[in-house]
Amino acid sequence: MTLSQARGLFVTGTDTGVGKTVITAALAAALRAEGRNIGVWKPVQSGALLGSGITDAERLLQGSGINELPESVAPYTFEAPLTPLLAARAAHVELTLEALSASGLPLMARYDSLLIEGAGGIAVPLTNEALVIDWIAELGTPVLIVARSSLGTINHTLLTAAMLKQRGIPVVGVVLNDGFEEAIHDAEDPSTSTNAALIEQFGDGLRVLGRFPRIVEERPSPAKLADLIGRTIDLSPVRQALE
């Protein structure tokens, strides 16, 4: 199987820490509850080692309910809390787009389609020659943008969407996330009620699919995540992207 034969959706963020992992896990849980053979892939992650229980791959598996080895989901894991290029360099590993793509072939063979969680945003340095957006273009998958729902999100979201459009990469929509770790509480941030409409107004066809609520518990179950995202996000464009 080659990358061109795989179906998938790339989940990117407007920044690091905006909640890509919980949204990706929730999407996977909801789609699998519908009987779809959906897998998750976190090609490269940094900031902690597998076994710590706090890596994105481990959180993806716990939140989605998928029975996979974390090292299968995250073939490149680095301890240094740095951009992938520098985290790999600190571990004396040279990342290449070819190696990253090849690492996903076993998952592509086991699942009908994959939710691929990126690292940070699309302009993050990935290899010595490429940004994350360069790899998205090579994968040929559409993109879902995860953004915070609070003040500042309009600028970050429109810039991300414009860069993707410039490269001809289709965007299925935007999910606003109340759980962004540095978000101002809703009661103190009146922008949260208007940000979605303004993103669509100035986004040249960009759709906001919904607003995912803040989750208090640290490790919500797959059933809870599936229920939450099913009630707050329009999943139709995601389903279509994975057909």
UniProtKB/TrEMBL annotation:
Pfam family, one: AAA_26
Active-site residues, as the UniProt record annotates them: 42
Needed co-factor(s): Mg(2+)
Statement: the UniProt record of this protein carries the keyword NAD: no
Gene Ontology molecular functions: dethiobiotin synthase activity
Reactions accelerated catalytically: (7R,8S)-7,8-diammoniononanoate + CO2 + ATP = (4R,5S)-dethiobiotin + ADP + phosphate + 3 H(+)
Enzyme class: ligase
Enzyme Commission number, as recorded: 6.3.3.3
Pathway entry: Cofactor biosynthesis; biotin biosynthesis; biotin from 7,8-diaminononanoate: step 1/2
Subcellular localization, as worded in the UniProt entry: Cytoplasm
Binding site for Mg(2+): 21, 56, 117
Gene3D superfamilies (UniProt xref): P-loop containing nucleotide triphosphate hydrolases (3.40.50.300)
Binding site residues for ATP: 17-22, 56, 117-120, 177-178, 213-215
Positions contributing to substrate binding: 46
InterPro entries the UniProt entry points to: DTB_synth_BioD, P-loop_NTPase
Keyword Manganese: no
Keyword terms, alphabetized: ATP-binding, Biotin biosynthesis, Cytoplasm, Ligase, Magnesium, Metal-binding, Nucleotide-binding
General function of this protein: Catalyzes a mechanistically unusual reaction, the ATP-dependent insertion of CO2 between the N7 and N8 nitrogen atoms of 7,8-diaminopelargonic acid (DAPA, also called 7,8-diammoniononanoate) to form a ureido ring.
Family: Belongs to the dethiobiotin synthetase family.
Assembly, per entry: Homodimer.
Name this protein carries in UniProt: ATP-dependent dethiobiotin synthetase BioD
Biological source species: Paenibacillus plantiphilus
